[in-house]
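Sample intake sheet
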Amino acid sequence: MRILLITGDAAEDLEVMYPYQRLLEEGYEVHIAAPAVKKLQFVVHDFVDGFDTYTEKLGHTWPADIALDEVNPADYAALVIPGGRAPEYLRNNETCRNLVRHFTTERKPIAALCHGPLILAAAGVLTGRSCSAYPALAPDIEAVGGKFVDSEAHVEDRVVTGRAWPDHPAWMRAFLQLLRE
């Protein structure tokens, strides 16, 4: 079974690598799609005492397997959208939004974490639905007619969402359960 993972530069390192490697471990074939086939630069977000928000440091680099424009969504059984800053610009990519709409319309499992739901919002698939995300995104989710849920693994209509990388165990467990159904 093939799974598509959409990401780009400045994605949260752990939020790309954990699901990528976990799904490979389970025997799935995972393709990383980005705006272009190139080596992507991921970042690490963490909290520092005294800061009001997270800090950002360079993380690992990893190659994209396929450009978004080359993806045939019919070739994939599920979609993963990690967080970090990448979703902030990926949500402006029409091909990316169309891919999300395909997975939603076809009722294929989707896992989105942290800032990943920004892409779901931009694709117009959160209206009338609830989802989890990084808590600072609650206004973004509500602005498109969605309902924010503060959960490590919120499942609604074949979409699993979570707040951030500390939610990996519950988020991935729920996604794997959907894949096995």
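Comment: The first strand starts at residue 2 and ends at 6. The CA atoms of residues 19 and 172 lie 7 Å apart.
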